[in-house]
Predict the 3D structure of the following.
Amino acid sequence: TVSGASTAAMALPTVGDDAPNAKIEDADGKALETKTLKGKPVLIVYEDKDASTQNTALKKELSELAKGDKYKSKVALAAVADVSSYDFWPARGFVKDAIREESKKQGTTIYCDWTASFRKAFKLTKGKSSIVLVGKDGKVLFAGEGALSEADRKKLVGLLKGQVEGA
């Protein structure tokens, strides 16, 4: 039976599989479909407000990498906020304002997952910080959730460098 299988292992996209196509939008309603990013490595950071501090160490490492133009121009960053629990009036308007403010502060677009469809497409766990790296070929190279260990952070950064620098 499958009952002995780890639920964590079943909760993320499988490394080597084609990444699903999912649609998200920024706070102003501009849509993005993940399939349009094929040809570039795509780093997905998916979090809700309670999970946003789980991978602070990784985010610091990534912001160091992003200081070089090489990574900014060659990697598609999909920072996605799980805002599905705020998809009602008037909360939606307040959340859009907060996302716009945070996008400005972080210097990157933060996309909104209003319906949890992105989370479901990528098999991510609600309430956890999820990190997924999709290679230029559209295949999942890395998937992790919760606070990543130092070994997992090194693995992820190494895979990302390999995609950008061809190593």
